[in-house]
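> call design_seq(struct)
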């Protein structure tokens, strides 16, 4: 814990590149100590967020393909890892070798390879892998063994990675030419440096760059104001243009990593938000808010790309379920449902089992009673989707009890019907039922064995004390919103209705009254069934439930 605390305290300087290499190597050595190095490798690839790295790293992550990213390494005079590095790229018809010659310290090697692997997978897809990794130092417990099948060898003169040439032109899902045009203004072409670099280094010494004055920079460089101005003229440099470039390199990085515009404007030293907006738009051509939205979308896309790939490989809905889901409201009758369900003994048993819960009254004696008296036709249609998800995903899940997760979704809906449904119209109730039932479906995707981070997600699930704490961890560490991600599964199975759009509002508008209520029902249900009956904090309950509603909720949970 002490090692983690010291690393966290240094994180700001590490991410900005203002941290000594030797000290960074020592931190990495401490954090790499583990009885399970494979877990560190898995976490590494999930942690790397290009939007929070330097301008050049972010620029590379938005390249058209790996080939364009490699070209940029030659075009710009910006190091990937440390200032003295020399990068060589050797391409043949069949393979590519990227060699990094630098003062590499032993504990930094795995992290450098992890960055390259994460970048190339980001650009070419998660199936990308190196064929061979050549290391300067020996690593008995190779951190990346669980995420890469590349052959590793040691005691080479430089770090080198080799991969198939076929990956070079694989189009990137994250290609963003407009954003690259914004970022390129802050990149220095190869061959430039000297006094210009001295100025940039001097700018970095000031906490609030928007308040920097030329005389202060001249003094920092040991020059009188007249000598400083003469030097600028000799070098054909514009002080104001260079300063503005530095200011907005910082602002771009902050906005892409999700920093709030008002907070960023103040930290940079602008007198007010309006001044910052005007300066930023003059420099980039777009508003700060627009760039922040782009960063948010890119972070979501990266976090959800693995989910998209899992979803695309799912089979279509079974025929019986597909028929039920596609019935119009007029066609959705008890007799029609009975006719469709009776030939499917597994689904029939599922419906009878759910209808037999004490919550729905006496045990049904027939399928007609289960649908017409206990569940209702709309609930059966929704149950059909949950049943399909459970059938398809149980055997491919790192979570040992998918049925319990499905049960929590059903309990969530029962809670909403008991506590709040009387306040809504029939149409609204039908939509809300889908939101409460389908909102957490993404749990089945993130725990899918094909998801790269499935084991990490399940570990976080086990370590969380409540459903809300788990969702907060997904958002903070993986930029995932469970509700928005659930729409991926629904779209795959043909849901193009309002439910998908409304699921996103649960992410974007969590404080809306109906969204608070839905989230409260999920929290109560999942805490009761999956988190050892953990309770919502009293202040959260007080915001959503009256004393009478709380009593009703406790009674329903006891009877479930």
């Amino acid at each position: 814990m002490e090692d983690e605390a010291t690393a966290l305290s240094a994180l700001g300087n590490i991410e900005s590149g203002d941290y000594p290499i030797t000290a960074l190597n020592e931190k990495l050595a401490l954090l790499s100590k583990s009885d399970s190095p494979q877990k560190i490798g898995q976490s590494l690839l999930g942690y790397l967020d290009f939007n929070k790295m330097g301008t050049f790293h972010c620029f590379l992550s938005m390249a058209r393909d790996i080939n364009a990213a490699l070209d940029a390494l030659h075009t710009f005079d910006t190091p990937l890892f440390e200032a003295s590095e020399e990068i060589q790229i050797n391409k043949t018809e069949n393979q590519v070798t990227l060699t990094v010659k630098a003062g590499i310290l032993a504990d930094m090697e795995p992290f450098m390879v992890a960055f390259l692997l994460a970048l190339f997978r980001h650009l070419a897809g998660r199936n990308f892998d190196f064929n061979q990794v050549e290391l300067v130092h020996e690593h008995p417990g190779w951190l990346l063994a669980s995420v890469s099948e590349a052959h590793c060898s040691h005691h080479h003169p430089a770090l080198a990675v080799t991969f198939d040439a076929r990956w070079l032109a694989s189009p990137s899902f994250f290609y963003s030419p407009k954003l690259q045009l914004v970022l390129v203004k802050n990149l220095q072409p190869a061959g430039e440096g000297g006094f210009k670099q001295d100025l940039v280094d001097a700018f970095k010494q000031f906490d609030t760059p928007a308040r920097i004055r030329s005389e202060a920079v001249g003094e920092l460089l040991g020059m009188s104001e007249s000598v400083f101005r003469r030097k600028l003229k000799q070098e054909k440099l514009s002080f104001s243009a260079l300063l503005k470039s530095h200011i907005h390199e910082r602002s771009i990085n902050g906005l892409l990593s999700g920093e709030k515009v008002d907070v960023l404007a103040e930290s940079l030293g602008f007198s007010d938000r309006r001044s910052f907006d005007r300066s930023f738009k003059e420099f980039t051509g777009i508003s700060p808010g627009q760039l922040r939205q782009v960063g948010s979308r890119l972070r979501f896309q990266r976090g959800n790309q693995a989910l998209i790939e899992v979803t695309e490989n799912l089979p279509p809905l079974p025929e019986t379920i597909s028929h039920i889901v596609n019935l119009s409201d007029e066609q959705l009758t008890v007799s029609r449902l009975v006719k469709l369900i009776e030939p499917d003994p597994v689904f029939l048993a599922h419906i009878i089992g759910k209808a037999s819960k004490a919550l729905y009254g006496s045990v049904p004696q027939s399928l007609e009673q289960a649908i017409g008296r206990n569940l209702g036709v709309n609930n059966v249609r929704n149950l059909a989707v949950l049943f399909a998800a459970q059938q398809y995903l149980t055997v491919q899940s790192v979570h040992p009890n998918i049925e319990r997760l499905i049960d929590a979704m059903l309990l969530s809906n029962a809670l909403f019907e008991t506590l709040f449904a009387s306040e809504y119209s029939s149409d609204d109730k039908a939509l809300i039922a889908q939101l409460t039932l389908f909102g957490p479906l993404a749990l089945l995707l993130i725990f899918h064995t094909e998801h790269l981070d499935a084991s990490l997600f399940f570990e976080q699930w086990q370590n969380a004390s409540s459903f809300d704490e788990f969702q907060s961890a997904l958002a903070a560490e993986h930029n995932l919103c469970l509700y928005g991600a659930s729409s991926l599964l629904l779209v795959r199975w043909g849901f193009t209705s309002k439910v998908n759009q409304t699921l996103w509002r649960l992410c974007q508008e969590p404080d809306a009254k109906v969204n608070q209520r839905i989230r409260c029902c999920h929290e109560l249900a999942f805490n009761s069934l999956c988190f050892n009956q953990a309770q919502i904090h009293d202040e959260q309950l007080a915001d959503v439930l009256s004393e009478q509603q709380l009593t009703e909720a406790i009674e329903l949970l006891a009877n479930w």
